Amino acid sequence: MDYTFQFGELLPYSDLIARGVLSTVILAIVTTVLGCLLGTLGAAARAGKQTFLSRAVGVYVELIRNTPFIVQLFFIFFGLPTIGIKLTAGEAGLLAMVINLAAYSTEIIRAGIESIPKGQLEAARTLGLSRTQTFTRVVLPPALEKIYPALTSQCIIVMLGSAVLSQISVEELTFAANFIQSRNFLSFEVYMVITVIYLLLAILMRQGFKLIHYFMFPNLRARS
Amino acid sequence: MSLVSINNVHKYYGSNHVLKGINLEIGAGEVVSIIGRSGSGKSTLLRCINGLEAYSEGGVVVDQMEVVYDDRQIRKLSKSVGMVFQSFNLFPHLTVGQNIMLAPKLVRKLPESEAKVIAQEVLAKVGLAEKIDSYPAELSGGQQQRVAIARSLAMNPKVLLCDEITSALDPELVGEVLKVLEDLAAEGMTLILVTHEMNFARDVGDRVIFMHQGLVWEEGDSKTVLANPQTPELSKFINAVL
Amino acid sequence: MSVFSDWDILRNLLLAARWTVVLSLIAFAGGATVGLLLTMMQVSGRTLLVRFTRLYIELFQGTPLLMQLFLVFFGLSLMGLEVSAWFAAALALTLFSSAYLTEIWRGCIESIPRGQWEASRCLGLSYFEIMRHIILPQALKVAIAPTVGFSVQIVKGTALASIIGFVELTKAGTMLNNATFEPFKVFGMVALLYFLLCYPLSVASRKLERKLNVAR
């Protein structure tokens, strides 16, 4: 192979790449926060008694988990306007990501809730805690702690999945890559650099989650 | 010549000094009970005898073989030392018969037919001959532990190590397992047990070793030691468990 | 004015869905083969092999599948190989799946209690005998449900092959959308077809898992 890599050719585009990184980071943060919040609500609904709500959430979770993200994205961006819901590419992308993560986190958190021993519930009841109190004070904290690794991995997976948003022209990291390679035709170099950036973002996110874990579950600190 | 000879054995977990120079000689046919609080190092000592745990200093010799933490040596030792665990550790995907026949076939290289004869023998010995085709999950805890003993016996060991083998059992199932041990002792099998069963230690055991803070604190003839503890630590321990 | 009837759309999507299925099967078979190799390397205990697999998994789980597709596609052509979108997609999906399957299978092997190892060692079994007779048979049973579950990710992953121009279900969807201007209907049908492919696998995975838990 007598090919010379020309990574230097990417320097003029560093601004564009930086803006791409920023968009991807913002998308990731907003999605993580909203997705996990909605997931908690979804899991509460799944665990609760209201059968209709519980079932509706169940159907939503199954629909999202069993279809590709890119199809969900196309459906929202191209499909929804035909029934009168007009969204910009950025809004559609964000919406798709949140809807996607919320479905997964619902399922993950629900599994965490189910893993809490019945005795905990009974103990809380005997102490006179209400249903809501039992859920937020006794069930949820250990459940979240238990599924924290699975939940945060899913958040990272969704962040990486945001690369697909370039397909509806959201100007994130992959969009920047596509743009640059259409100008300088150095596809491999461009995608290589962008891939490394994604890797760094994933690592950064994981470290961030570790930090959050440290503050969120102080009882673990006491133990170690 | 003693069967098991433990010479100034030390063991560290990081900076934690769990065995602080253990010396023990155990002769063939002896039934030795190791007692003590949790954390006193008794299980660690037992696991150093068959190489499951590496000791940091000193030496252990079993049946004229030096015990070193090395796969090949453990394989050799397995023909002399059997071990039964608190949690049975039967192989759940194999029937009782297959559990017992596995090592004789793989390690002793016996043909299937011979291994089967041995399996029937050892199962008869623990009173479970009819369970040869059952799976472990179909047995009670006491039965599972008896199968685990049979599995060890199938290797024809000279010494059997028992690590709190009745601690995970419901009270009503303890007796049947101890009965098997008693029969083995009567046949002359060398037994080294880490146990909380004081009655068994006194009535069946020859010798009691009381461990405390990583040391052999007191030892001697089981009836004497348990009846007349010489140290406040042992009296306190005996009062607490009885 | 659209010249496509609903049936035309569905028929074309179904034809394209065949390629989604074929690509999924190839990716699964390839991923399982490479994954098996990597799992063996990972449990070998050799530091170098373990580190290599760790890094491999880290790289493929830490980067977007889309980037992996692009890199395989453009990387191979850089090496002078004229590759079809079809081959690049199969290769990228194989690598991607192998990383995840290795991670899943390693977890299954590690889920076998330590006591099983200890008991086997006390009986004198060698490392490979323990693996072959004690650990793998049990790990295999544990692995079935999550493996089937992951196959859903593979099917969904094949949708990205559309971006490098491989005509499977999603690509057919975009093409039909461009021809009919009925995105709601077209992408709704596309989603439905994926759901019909994936949902049975999800259900099977859950059922297998429950069966295993009951058996324990």
Please give the alpha-carbon distance between the first and last residues of chain A.
Answer: 53 Å
Radius of gyration of CA atoms of chain C, rounded to a whole number: 21 Å
Order of helices and strands of chain C: HHHHHHHH
The strand count of chain A comes to 0
Rounded mean pLDDT of chain A is: 91
CATH topology-level fold name of chain C? MetI-like fold
Structural class estimated from helices and strands of chain A: mainly alpha
**CATH class term of chain C:** Mainly Alpha
Number of domains of chain C: 1
Mean pLDDT of chain C: 93
CATH architecture annotation of chain A:
Orthogonal Bundle
The counted number of beta strands of chain C is 0
What is the CATH topology classification name of chain A? MetI-like fold
**DSSP helix count of chain C?**
8
Chain pair sharing the greatest interface? A-C, 40 and 39 residues
CATH homologous group name of chain C: MetI-like
Kindly describe this structure.
The complex is a heterotrimer of chains A (224), B (242) and C (216). Chain A has helices at residues 14-47, 51-65, 69-79, 89-114, 118-126, 131-161, 173-184, 187-216, 218-223. Chain A has 224 residues and is mainly alpha-helical. Chain A has one domain: MetI-like fold (Orthogonal Bundle), CATH 1.10.3720. The longest helix of chain A is centred in the N-terminal third of the chain and has 34 residues, at 14-47. Chain B starts with a strand and ends with a helix. The longest helix of chain B has 16 residues, at 171-186. In chain B, the strands form two sheets. In chain B, strands 6-7-8-3-9-10 form a six-stranded mixed beta sheet, with helices on both faces. A four-stranded antiparallel beta sheet of chain B has the order 2-1-4-5, with helices on one face. Chain B has helices at residues 42-49, 71-77, 96-106, 112-125, 141-153, 171-186, 198-203, 222-227, 232-241, and strands spanning 4-13, 16-26, 31-35, 57-62, 65-66, 81-84, 159-163, 190-194, 207-212, 215-221. In chain B, α3 (96-106) runs parallel beside α5 (141-153) and α4 (112-125) crosses α5. Chain B has a domain at 87-156. Helices cover 38% and strands 25% of the residues of chain B. Chain C is built from eight helices and no strands. Chain C has helices at 6-43, 47-61, 65-78, 85-110, 114-122, 127-157, 169-180, 183-215. The radius of gyration of chain C is 21 Å and the shape is flat. Classes of the chains: A mainly alpha (224), B alpha/beta (242), C mainly alpha (216). The A-C interface holds A 1, 3, 62-63, 65-72, 74-75, 78-83, 156, 160-164, 166-167, 174, 177, 187-188, 191-192, 194-195, 198-199, 202-203 and C 59, 61-68, 70-71, 74-75, 78-80, 152, 156-157, 159-160, 162-163, 170, 173-174, 177, 182-184, 187-188, 190-191, 194-195, 198-199, 202.
